[in-house]
Specification:
By secondary structure, the chain is an alpha/beta fold. 36% of the residues lie in helices and 20% in strands. Helix 2 packs across helix 3, helix 3 crosses helix 6 and helix 6 packs parallel to helix 7. The longest helix has 16 residues.
Length: 252
């Protein structure tokens, strides 16, 4: 585990995997952004499901792979909000860029993590490319019952500060303003992978098509019969690893 300080104060934590045998040239780096916690996937410890994937990327592909624990998750301080979690992704990119052995950073996110990755990458040219897997095109539904969303987050332990947020309306408006199709358009012409399961019951596969169309040249892959949790689908992981492998030619 590694820890660092976010620009706005909270201590953040992540799981960093590095190859055992270091090659002479710099390592490409990837930040893995987990999906939203739930009572079924480990709650605030949900990011730990991606630690084996980080190890695999480090050892078999010789990348530096960092799994981010958003604020309120794992050993990271702070409370959940979409905007704050997007800031955490940017902070993880900062942390990777501080590593002398890393040259070039990509983002790969599952579910909400892919959306946050796209949002973080839109204005940050340091991010070389984005893979979004099972990701929503927007968060409009969060605005339908923001109080319920906050209470659910509190039940998962990712909001712990009494009285947070100061304004439910502002918290909800920040979520509604995040349009991932617009982010995808801004990411172009940097590469983007948009991966989705045909049987995803949590996020419609139509969202993937909207995101890919907005980018204009994204690699769109719909996996037949796959559901939402692509981190546990061998076909999804194979596609992700293949896409990452194709990116190393982009390193000067």
């Amino acid at each position: 585990m590694i820890c660092w300080q976010a620009a706005d104060g909270p201590k953040l934590a992540g799981y960093l995997a590095l190859p055992d045998s270091r090659r002479m040239r710099a390592l490409p780096g990837v930040v893995l952004c987990p999906g939203f916690p739930s009572s079924d996937n480990g709650g605030s410890r949900a990011a730990e499901r991606l630690y084996p994937l980080a190890d695999r990327i480090a050892q078999s592909m010789e990348w530096a792979a960092l799994v981010l624990n958003y604020r309120g998750c794992g050993d990271s301080e702070g409370d959940f909000s979409l905007r704050a979690w997007a800031d955490d992704v940017c902070s993880a990119v900062d942390r990777m860029n501080e590593m002398e052995q890393v040259e070039g950073v990509w983002l790969a996110g599952f579910g909400i993590g892919g959306a946050l990755a796209a949002y973080a990458a839109r204005d940050d040219p340091r991010i070389r490319g984005v893979a979004a897997m099972g990701s929503p095109v927007d968060f409009d539904h969060w605005g339908l019952d923001p109080s319920g969303a906050v209470e659910y987050a509190r039940s998962l332990g990712i909001i712990t500060t009494p009285g947070f947020p100061d304004s439910i309306d502002s918290w909800a408006e920040a979520a509604r303003s995040m349009r991932i199709d617009r982010c995808a358009a801004d990411i172009a012409p940097r590469p983007m992978l948009v991966l989705h399961g045909s049987d995803d019951r949590e996020v419609s596969p139509l969202d993937a098509r909207v995101i890919a169309d907005a980018h204009g040249d994204a690699g769109l892959r719909i996996i037949s019969g796959a559901g939402h949790r692509l981190h546990s689908d061998p076909r999804g992981i194979a596609i992700l690893l293949g896409w990452l492998d194709s990116q190393i030619t982009l390193i000067p």
